[in-house]
Amino acid sequence: MRKCILPTLHLQDTMEASEEQLSSQSTTASDRDRREQFIDGLAAVNCDANALDRITPVMALKLINSYRHITTNIGCWQARLRGDKDGHIRITVKRIFGEHHPFLHQIALIATDRRGQLTATLGSRRYDVSHLCHNARCFNPEHLIVESSRHNQERRTCNGHKIIVHEGLIYHPCSHGRVEAMHKCILPVVHLQDGYHVNHSE
User: What is the CA 109 to chain-centroid distance, rounded?
Assistant: First the structure.
């Protein structure tokens, strides 16, 4: 009898090919996960944008007035609700188009006809809604502006500082208002008594 003629198997080549295939499959899976996350992110942004588009300025004004439970000494509006990890407050809006959970500061921008500015912050890392008062719970429209993320981050240098008023003079530590297109931070005011002076010898 003659031997059968069978294909030759090179084990080393097969092992290398399998490793390459597994690596390729892993990369493909990783790329697929990133694509799915990106698509999910876009879907969430579109969902938020669509939900906010259905809220009229009149409706938004009623909402922020109904949640205006506390006014601080610098004019911050706050609700008696727990904020997220950053302090921002979400509310539940139930309409015929479904249930949505926008932030109160987003509603405040709509109430003051700044929907276009708000849209620029949705799904973007270039623009933020800045709280001039450094109070993430605040939704006073006068304390909110839309600006670049870089300018928003720069405002951290003012957090914790105070405006000093003494003998008719006002010291405002915020320098952001000197930059074009920026607004000064809203800070607590301290009035020093007349005759008060700092002893620099100590």
Answer: 14
Q: How far apart are CA 146 and CA 12, in angstroms?
A: 60
Dihedral sign of CA atoms 133, 139, 142, 146 in order: positive
Give me the residue spans of the domains in the chain: 40-157
**Is the pTM value of this prediction over 0.70?**
no
Neighbours of 184 (CB within 10 A): 17
AA letter at 106: Q
What does the alpha-carbon distance between residue 111 and residue 60 come to, in Å, rounded to a whole number?
Answer: 5
Q: Is 153 helix (H, G, I), strand (E, B) or coil?
A: helix
| Residues of the chain with confidence (pLDDT) below 50 | 6-19, 22, 26, 36-47, 200, 202
- Rounded CA separation 25/28 (Å): 5
